[in-house]
Amino acid sequence: MLEVRSITVRFAGLTAVSDLSFDVGEGEILAIMGPNGAGKTSAFNAITGFARPAAGEVLFDGRSITGLKPDAIAALGIRRTFQNNGILREMSVLENVLMGLELSTASSMAGVVFGLPSSVRAEQEAVAAAYAQLASLGVSALAERPAGSLSFGQQRLVEICRALVSGARLIMLDEPAVGLSPMERLQLGEVLRDLAARGIAIVLVEHVQDLVMAVSDRVLVLNYGKKIAEAAPEEVRRNKLVLEAYLGTA
Amino acid sequence: MSKTADSSATGNYRVNHLARGRTLRGLGLATCLALLLGLPLLVNEYQQFVVNTMVIYALIAVGFNVVLGYLGQLAFANAAFFGVGAYATGLTMVHLALPLPLALLAAGAAGTVAGIAVALPALRVQGHYLAIFTLAFGELMRWVYVHADAVTFGPSGFNVPRPAALGLLGSPERGKYYLFLAVAIIAIGATVRLLRSRFGRAFVAVRNNERAAASLGVSVARAKIIAFGWSGFLVGVAGGLYALLNGRVTPDSFGLAQLLLNFAIVMIGGLGSVLGSILGAILLTGAPELLRNFAGIEEIVFSLLLIGVLFFMPKGIGGLIAARIPALREPLHRE
Amino acid sequence: MLAQLAISGIVVGSVYALVALGMTILFRATSIVNFGHGEFFMLGAFAIYVLKQGFGWSYPVAIAIAFGLLFLVGVLVERVLIRPLGSAPFLSFAMMTVAFSFLFKGLTRFFYGRDVSMLPPLLNGEPLDFGSVVLFPQDFLVIAGAGATMTIFFLFFEYTQVGKIVQAASQAPRGAALVGINVPAFHSAMWGVAALTGAVAALLIAPSTLVYPDMGGQMLVHAFAAMTLGGFGSLGGAVLGGLSLGIIENLMGGYVSSSLVEISAYLVIMLVLLVRPQGVFGEWRTSRV
Ligand SMILES: Nc1ncnc2c1ncn2[C@@H]1O[C@H](COP(=O)(O)OP(=O)(O)OP(=O)(O)O)[C@@H](O)[C@H]1O
Ligand SMILES: [Mg+2]
């Protein structure tokens, strides 16, 4: 579904990602690991339109999405979360989740302004769908709270909720387990497996080993912007290069 | 993961709670409307004129708030939208003899165009750049009013014909009042609906975090164009009404002093609060009438008010209301 | 004619450059865009006018006191109005500068009415004729004064230890605090310096224009145009932008239409921001994710 073809991302002299390629298929969970500064977030940014790759190509359903704007990429059915500061702090939790439905709410501007029934209904249905999504993650009690007042872990959950509600086909999560309690992490793992079972592709950047090992089908390891390993979780754990990268002896 | 029992309980609570809030609000609105309709019986001609001014400023403030409060962009073009609207109505009535409704639509259209024109740089630049651009735009418009005198009648302005229909209700001020009120209610009502829809949410999402908004499929450019265009529309229409109010349009009504008054009203009302903007307009609009006779006093009073609000009441009246009267709390209000 | 227009452009342009430089320094040091900067210029002109014409003091005394007063005004603005806002959003700071600009304008209008006053020239003397170009002694003074002030700034920022630390402080306040800079005091001082540059500009140009409460707004727009043209936030850009703006304005007035002089600055701002927002001389600084 997602094919990344030798992308390179540069920032003023620094090569954050170099010649990275990987594929993710329907219902598959790919974890990307790597030490701090390895280029994981930069790879996300290049795929989702927030950074322009200096070279290479990104294909979604066989179609090139390189160079498209973030909102155009989102419209194709790709959703991401941010490593930090991805929440809309001044909006309520419900409104945050509703933002995930921005593209699927069929109200038109004229319809809204004149209060036409079709648009009113579309807005109401969006609210219902948002509530349902919140309930399925067990956080509907938070709906009216300002998102900025939540704990870090809860904010993560809201972000994930927002990505899920859109019916995206590819979901990319940048360190979603930071700030989650072990219980919440387990729950997150369950949710991810559940999504994969429904055919949704997931790319997961994560440091937390137990989560990665438990959910991912494949693990890709980056170091200094380069892919140093890509294999099943148990294999990666035994990979010498990976151990070196993490122990800093590379 | 499945906490269905829990969630349906909260859902029920919410529905009841909402319904109660809605009846309360409905009753409140009906009372307000009755009062507004009866108001001309209680005031004299001059007081009616001041009230008419308040209605116009309520519309201006709501329009300005769309950009400043909801979209969160610092723009100084509000007085320009206002002027463009006033000139559009006045000039189409003078030169083209357009009937009043069409002349007001012309004001809205001109305001929308000006709003979108200002939004174009907002797509590439933001923050102080946009503020500077809009400042230049406003002053440029004033230069045009003064120098395009073949069309605009130059620095001294021109008289706007008074439509006969406005005199039908006894006094011209009263006729204007019902017209202004109808326009303001329709326009503000539409704005409230817009702000509560996915469009308004997109404005606030852009204000909060452009990157996150874009990642959710919001076209930041489109949100800005819609917000600026709508803001220009409202303020432009208010300008059209202003041309009728005074029966005269002059370039110096749309300069920096106008802008200061607009800022003061919106800030006192509270960024991101429609109700606050309306109350702010009512509070501050009478003041210029009282202060007009002393050089500089108007500027001193409004700037001190602005400073006071920034220090002591950064959320404005809207914030006070949201904290004290939950039934009147507006969605998307700034926390 | 071209030479004369260009030289006159450089004369006014050096004043724009000076004001733009003051705003840029403040922006670099505090990341606040000061919409009240024009009023520092206006207050500077009024301070000199009142001390010179009102109190009848000699120019040197009036100037020295006016400069001191303006530095104080800048520091007070920072202490009383800006600092208490703490970590408020950008909008609040911008709004605060708008508010105090109107406050100063209103106060001046209240005390000095709506009339227009004049300052005598600093230097008298016959105009000097260089063939195709005629210059007044005052013109030399303007160029020299603005040039000297700007040179001092550059030497300070680029070549002294303190200047470099100051630049660092504007990039990373927390780091600056770590190396022992008193950041709040530094911000106060920068506001004082910014206001002071306004007064210097007023001293140089007010004798050839007039002194009136609304004079600040025009200067603000010109300074913004200079900064935009040169690349917002760049010290060198502010100077180049100011000089270019002066020349553009004069050429537009001389060759196209005199009514265009008033709006050259607006047109420059709008054109540059639409076509090349990083400024004609500037590089685009991308912000980090
Ligand atoms: N906008 C930017 N401008 C300049 N350099 C950047 C930018 N974004 C990232 N970098 C640099 O690129 C490199 C890769 O950063 P990136 O954020 O992609 O790493 P990461 O693997 O996500 O790290 P972490 O685990 O800390 O999140 C780092 O050296 C970082 O400093
Ligand atoms: Mg990262």
From TrEMBL, chain A:
One of its GO terms (biological process) is D-alanine transmembrane transport. It comes from Xanthobacter autotrophicus. InterPro entries: AAA+_ATPase, ABC_AA/LPS_Transport, ABC_transporter-like_ATP-bd, ABC_transporter-like_CS, BCA_ABC_TP_C, P-loop_NTPase. GO terms for cellular component: plasma membrane. Pfam families: ABC_tran, BCA_ABC_TP_C. It comes from the Bacteria. Gene3D superfamilies: P-loop containing nucleotide triphosphate hydrolases. This is ABC transporter ATP-binding protein. The lineage of its organism: Bacteria, Pseudomonadati, Pseudomonadota, Alphaproteobacteria, Hyphomicrobiales. Keywords: ATP-binding, Nucleotide-binding, Transport. One of its GO terms (molecular function) is L-phenylalanine transmembrane transporter activity. Belongs to the ABC transporter superfamily. Residues 2-249 form the ABC transporter domain.
UniProtKB/TrEMBL annotation, chain C:
It is found in: Cell membrane. It is a multi-pass membrane protein. Keywords: Amino-acid transport, Cell membrane, Membrane, Transmembrane, Transmembrane helix, Transport. It holds the Pfam family BPD_transp_2. GO terms for biological process: amino acid transport. Signal peptide: none annotated. PANTHER family: ABC TRANSPORTER PERMEASE PROTEIN, BRANCHED-CHAIN AMINO ACID TRANSPORT SYSTEM PERMEASE PROTEIN LIVH. One of its GO terms (cellular component) is plasma membrane. This is Branched-chain amino acid ABC transporter permease. The chain crosses the membrane at residues 6-27, 32-51, 57-77, 89-112, 132-157, 178-207, 219-243, 255-275. GO terms for molecular function: transmembrane transporter activity. Belongs to the binding-protein-dependent transport system permease family. LivHM subfamily.
